[in-house]
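Quiz preparation item.
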């Protein structure tokens, strides 16, 4: 489990960040960065590198390998520290709060700025690197792919998607992005999977969710990972989050992914509220209505 490094950030010195950045730079070319390369990558003297290595090891920000040669690589804590340092220098965040959620591929924390916000660290590739490399198309054209690259690309893709659809689609407002981390609006509400809707709310909420997916399609995006775990529900409506796997609508498989998203959402509502929805819904026709922005077609398919 990755540890929260916010508490040690004030204890780190500028040269510590130079060392961490140097290891990050070296990891573009190999999994383990040779010790003799670190002065070049970090722009520190050899003596300073020696001192900073010991400090970063003590803070558990890097790890050492001595099997074939002496090499170093960042731990996720070190990558977190670099992203947090960048956000602090930009004055994006002023304080670090409690955990909002820990998942298989991300950790989310509350952070302070001019108002409470959410900070999401992407963890793709940390525990299931080979699987991620197979599934995520942004890793297929690289000879050497580290988990840093995989996590950073996931954050970049999610931030790009949020910027593309906000504010016309109900998603968290994107604020800033650095490396594998995104600062975004903190959303209140309850995860759809843990929400018990009243009978009279079921069809309107499903319809609203499909209409938001339709608006996203109009803005050129398909979520491509829609489920009851990626939706918050509150009194004002729904909010769709977790967009790192989203694809543009001109992607060759966009229609297929949209139909799968529609089927996932409708199937969830059918399982949880079977008495309130038709037993059979034509997912392909409903996906066509979503893509066309046909609100009437969406309503008809759910009757």
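Solution:
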């Amino acid at each position: 489990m990755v540890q929260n490094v916010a508490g040690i950030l004030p204890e780190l010195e500028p040269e510590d960040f130079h060392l961490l950045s140097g290891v990050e730079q070296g990891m573009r070319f190999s999994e383990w960065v040779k010790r003799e390369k670190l002065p070049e990558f970090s722009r520190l003297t050899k003596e300073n590198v020696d001192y900073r290595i010991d400090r970063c090891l003590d803070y558990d920000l890097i790890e050492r390998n001595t099997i074939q040669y002496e090499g170093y690589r960042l731990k996720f804590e070190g990558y977190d520290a670099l992203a947090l340092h960048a956000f602090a220098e930009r004055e994006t965040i002023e304080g670090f709060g409690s955990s909002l959620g820990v998942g298989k591929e991300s950790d989310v924390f509350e952070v302070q700025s001019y108002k409470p916000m959410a900070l999401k660290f992407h963890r793709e590739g940390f525990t299931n690197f080979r699987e991620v490399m197979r599934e995520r198309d942004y890793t297929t054209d690289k000879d050497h792919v580290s988990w840093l690259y995989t996590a950073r690309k996931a954050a970049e893709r999610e931030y790009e998607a949020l910027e593309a659809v906000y504010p016309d689609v109900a998603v968290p407002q994107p604020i800033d992005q650095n490396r594998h981390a995104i600062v975004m609006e903190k959303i209140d509400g309850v995860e759809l999977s843990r929400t018990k809707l009243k009978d009279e709310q079921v069809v309107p909420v499903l319809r609203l969710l499909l209409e938001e997916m339709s608006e996203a399609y109009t803005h050129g995006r398909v979520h491509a990972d829609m489920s009851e775990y990626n939706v918050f529900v509150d009194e004002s409506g729904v909010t769709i989050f977790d967009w790192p796997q989203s694809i543009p609508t001109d992607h060759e498989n966009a229609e297929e992914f949209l139909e799968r998203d529609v089927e996932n959402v409708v199937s969830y509502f059918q399982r949880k509220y079977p008495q309130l929805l038709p037993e059979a819904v034509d997912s392909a026709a409903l996906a066509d209505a979503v893509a066309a922005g046909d609100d009437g077609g969406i309503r008809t398919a759910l009757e």
